[in-house]
Design a protein that fits this description.
45% of the residues lie in helices and 13% in strands. It has 18 helices and 13 strands. The protein is of the alpha/beta class. Helix 18 links the parallel strand 12 and strand 13.
Length: 449
Amino acid sequence: MNSPSTITVLGAGYVGLTTAALLAHAGYKVYAIEPNPKRLAVIKQGRSFFFEEGLDPIIKAAIDAGNFVATDSYQESVPESDVVFSSVGTPDNPDGSSNLSYVFSAAKEAASYMKNGAIYVQKSTVPVGTGRKVQALFQEMGKHFAYVSNPEFLREGTALYDTLYFDRVVAGGDDEQAVEAILAIYRQLEEHRDEIASQAGVTPNPRKGKYIATSLNSAELIKVTANAFLALKISFANSIAQLADKVDANVVEVMDAVGADERIGRAFLNAGRGYGGGCFPKDVSGLIASGLENGVDLEIMQSAQRTNSTMPGYIVEKLKKSLGELNGRKIAVLGLAFKAGTSDVRKSPGMAMVRLLHTAGATVLAHDPQAAEEACEAYDDALDIRPSISETIEAADAVIVATEWDEYRQLLPESFKAPMAGTTIVDAVNILDKNALTSAGLTYLGVGR
């Protein structure tokens, strides 16, 4: 099998656009297909339609070099491509299972244009067994392409770093040559990574990633299992945080000590408002649904899901107990993105708290350094978002810090005390200095501390 030179990426979202732009800097001619006209227009200008640190200059440079083309046409890009990556959306259905309509429609459309010998690669997170269904679709069409599962492991907010300095690349399929060809793409990316990192302002890392070849079904199960385990760690920390609140312990101290055990590790043992975004909630639900479809009751993941769903309400209830009543109160919420480093508000705990506060009759003012526009688009009713922190918290009865942005982490007691009408600070991400705030006469409410 010859080394690929031209690549098409189906879907230019968080995963697809990052992947396409970086591969264009690694010596490939890359097409990115984006059907949304508004988003496509932004990408053609050399920018991303979402916030991801360092991505814009990478896109612009790739376009200027002639190695990256954004289009909405399969016919323009797919026929000349050696590899087609699919990174289309897989939203969850009401029952928690994954909606694969985009996966199958993209595969069908691409297959009608793919040349003989091309490789179809699934990067979207899909339930185990999806690859076999796509292969069956190709066979029904009379097409015979190698199919490889190549799940992504990037994190929003550090997507460039995670793609360039990956800890592992997984590729699984029946055709060993095709699997090796996909792994070779990442080896070539690894050769160029320091040069690309310097353009994007990413700090280099000398580590060498692992290249893991597996079966098709194993590759599909690896991704959802990894995300589910990380979500489980967060929910575990939140369960212990609720106990810590009852027994006057500090969950941060507890998790620091627990995480010092190298068998466990400290990462993701962070108590707070819970997980959100487009991956963890969907992948946990999808894994539970896959288990039920195959007669396996994943009770531990169901418990993690229940714990996570209760955290926004748990935090709002803490505030209610402190103030006595939320109706008519003015509450400032700092942070609407589901995590720092991104503008993504999907399944955001901060947004969930805003809804709960509104339902309780509170007046809510909000702030986020990157997610204001997306939050307004996603919220059902009018959302009062202020351009600065000081304007947001002015005359507020209480402040909820809901996202771990550095701008919030650096806030001092006087930043709150002077403009606020009240004294209650709810640290839903456990990033503020509790002692400093309480010493200044403010009421501090953390999660398990």
